[in-house]
Amino acid sequence: MNHLPQRTLMQKWHLQSLSSVLIFVILLIGSAKVCGINWSSLNQNFSQFFDLFKKMAHPQWSYVTVVIQPIIETIKMALIGTTLGSIIALPICVFAARNIVTNKIVTTSIRFLLNIIRTLPDLMLAALFVAIVGIGPLAGILTLAIFSFGMVSKLFYEAIETIDPGPLEALQAVGANKIQIIVFAVLPQVINNFVSYFLYTLEINVRASTVLGYLGAGGIGVYLQRSLDSFNYQQTAVIILAILVVVLIIDGLSNYLREKLL
What is the 3-state secondary structure (H, E, C) of the chain? Predict the structure, then answer.
């Protein structure tokens, strides 16, 4: 006669899961105390959120004509920055993939460089480029290009390392060189992922460029700062809606292309 396996005390009372939840709660409470979070102050001032929401609930639709040009500039900044960063990332990430380049010194050095680039905050890069090239969209484009380079490189070399090694071994067996292997065995397997990562980064950059405008890096962020500084929340609502529409369009385009490519 078959018997059900006996569960241990830990399994019977789910002590491991409960312990994990308890440790998480303790760490959360401890982190809140270390950061000096005052929950009572949050509760007392939470009504201000509804006051702002009421002010933004009636957008100034006549401001749409003003928003169109800077939102187009924001899209251009994000598109150019993402494209430049992705183009530069394409050859670099190949050298970071350990199944393509077997020299650990090369791959480790490139990955270390990419880690440094991803560590740099966007706002710091924007402030740096504004100081170098001046106020305008060029500073934002350069900032977004560096951010895109660091992000796409990591995602892409990780995708390369998961490809099927069969085509690589077949081309190596017939005497193909590295460039031929990359073109005919690597890229066909990861091109769909690359398009998806590109569109995902573009979506992030559209949102990020709104923040960069606070530092004079061009785009819709400049107008967002003006509306907030002047407490004109009706105009702020129009700007937020415009950004939302752009993000939704990019997200829909990304999903459409992924379905077509996969």
Answer: CCCCCCCCHHHHCCHHHHHHHHHHHHHHHHHHHHHCCCHHHHHHHCHHHHHHHHHHCCCCHHHHHHHHHHHHHHHHHHHHHHHHHHHHHHHHHHHHCCCCCCCHHHHHHHHHHHHHHHHCCHHHHHHHHHHHHCCCHHHHHHHHHHHHHHHHHHHHHHHHCCCCHHHHHHHHHCCCCHHHHHHHHHHHHHHHHHHHHHHHHHHHHHHHHHHHHHHCCCCHHHHHHHHHHCCCHHHHHHHHHHHHHHHHHHHHHHHHHHHHHC
Which pTM was predicted? 0.76
| In the block, residue with structure tokens 């169109």 | 68
The sign of the CA dihedral 22, 28, 31, 32 is negative
**In this predicted structure, what is the pLDDT of residue 149?**
92
pLDDT of residue 10: 56
Question: What are the b/e assignments for 71-83, b being 16+ CB within 10 Å?
Answer: bebbbbbbbbbbb
Buried b / exposed e over 28-49, threshold 16 CB at 10 Å, is: eeeeeeeeeeeeeeeeeeeeee
